[in-house]
Specification:
This protein has a domain at about 40-70. It contains 3 helices and no strands. It has helices spanning about 1-20, 40-50, 55-70.
């Protein structure tokens, strides 16, 4: 009976300690949290994709999609 009470007390203490730790605050609006708008994506694409490299860019996209679907 005492063994059970000791085990329960240890487990309860562990739960309390874990809950006191809580979640770590992370800084808001980091680069990974910023979402681009459609206009921003379009503007970026117009700068990066030209008539000269459009087929290369298409190949890159196709490979990326293939890798994502192979998961």
């Amino acid at each position: 009976m005492k063994k059970r009470l000791v085990i329960i007390a240890i487990l309860a203490g562990g739960v309390v300690l874990m809950s006191l730790g809580g979640c770590k605050d992370k800084p808001a609006d980091t680069e990974s949290d910023i979402v681009k708008t459609d206009a921003e994506y379009k503007q970026e694409a117009e700068k990066e994709i030209t008539r000269e490299n459009m087929f290369e860019e298409l190949d890159k996209l196709e490979k990326s999609v293939d890798q994502d679907t192979d998961l």
